[in-house]
């Protein structure tokens, strides 16, 4: 529509090129302008389209383009572009309605994705809340007792805006002294109303601790002793009969549901003789000697959370395709989850999708969080900066088409993370097409940065071919050591030593470690409950990207019932399987197939509705098919991050009656919303 306005008008594409060219990096050469003008000779050619493509490749922002149109005085084009901006504002985290007890604080959260410079404003009913211009609104519930209130957030960019949904806050009186203790402020949607209490018992007594919470969905519980989970203790009440001194220690309870997580306070349980009375520091001094003194152990490093973003690019549009990233990302995902990392794993991302994925990753970080970024794919290194190449990079790509790792690190530091780990499984050869020195601001001196490069500077990284399954050299050795309780730099040193034993890459590829880590930080470090409840936005953001649609049962007019099930291979790849559960006796043959799958997804129709998981084109079928039912038809949907609308498709039931040769057909449309990573609107 913009092309129609600018292709033939007097204030058209040439004027736009002139105004945009006032910024040196957007100035087009004579040859480029001639290339644009020649587009009129093509059947559907557009000079404006060609010009916009040139500006996009130079990272021209929508805001700058709008400013150019305003300087041209092109009101109609400005109005068109402003309307497009309005469609770009998406509320990604909605505020949640809550029922809370008096004396606590409520935190409402609203996050939005869209153009730069989004402005937030909270309302209570129709009244603006003074000073409430941040994504998070904290409310003192004492003022709301007996007066239910409705809250909503407006997100705007210039004259365009979008509203969140309404959130209803209902405050109830406390039913017990513990419930209003104020120790545990409210998280959105999850509130502890009864805290466990410390106690002192004798051996043989019964230990009873209780933690109660309000939440929607209903809360689940997991008790911890000395910050280790207590096996089988997954109820609000923890009871242990006939206790011994082995049960003494510090107890806390993790309360969580699908979207939120909150911890109770930590309480001490003393049994029998106090541990302090039998410690070496309290023993009487030997005759004629000095009293023994106890040296306090050094503090154990810990994370407030652990988050990992794993990106594997394989199917490049203009470059050699790779095999290893899929297997490597899957292997690391499995191992990192065993280390309690929140993992987002994505395959085959374009530049805009990679940038949005990194932005969402940054939202998951916070003070004391361990952040890990793993990238497998094409890459290069210029002037000490590493660049990750997206799958849509042109044949002669530059830094403008790629993501700079050092800029990602700078953004991570702004989140005050406890540990920043980069595992870069890519080549580090010089890119002769790129002579631009990136302007990266100076990094903070945080002494918590670790870079593990799969290969040395100006060298290539290799993958091992093993039939359909290929591993990169780096991950082949990394996965042997990843679960070891070692300082991360020591662990990577061991990986480097192992890699050095491989004869075929000796002299070609060697792991390089760069680090300024000053503490003994390890991937196995425990996650300690924070001293107070924090915003649930981080947990909600991660949970949204990992919610599969619920299994469904479809009933057809012929009397057949079809089960529709789902499995996740990666955060952006989903398996759908159909299974006929029951048919009337007069039906001889019956099967259910998927049709009308959205074209924007990467779906090979030859690999849909297959009778075995191995036929859908996934080398990893053995890993996800374990949870699938038997006698199914399988389809594999890739590129879920490209979904702009909710995922809708058709289930086609084909059946044949006894004594008949022809098949009958019935269809049902199914809408499963936005599954997995599609909920985050990365497009």
From TrEMBL:
Name the InterPro entries for this protein: Caspase-like_dom_sf, Caspase-related_regulators, DEATH-like_dom_sf, Ig-like_dom, Ig-like_dom_sf, Ig-like_fold, Ig_sub, Ig_sub2
GO:BP terms for this protein?
proteolysis
What SMART domains has UniProt attached to this entry? IG, IGc2
PROSITE patterns attached here?
Answer: CASPASE_P20, IG_LIKE
Residue span(s) of domain Caspase family p20: 304-431
The UniProt GO MF terms for this protein read: cysteine-type endopeptidase activity
| Residue ranges of the TM segments | none
- Domain spans labelled Ig-like: 89-156, 185-270
Q: Where is the composition biased (Low complexity)?
A: 274-294
Q: Where is this region: Disordered?
A: 274-296
Q: What is this protein called?
A: MALT1 protein
Gene that this sequence comes from? Malt1_0
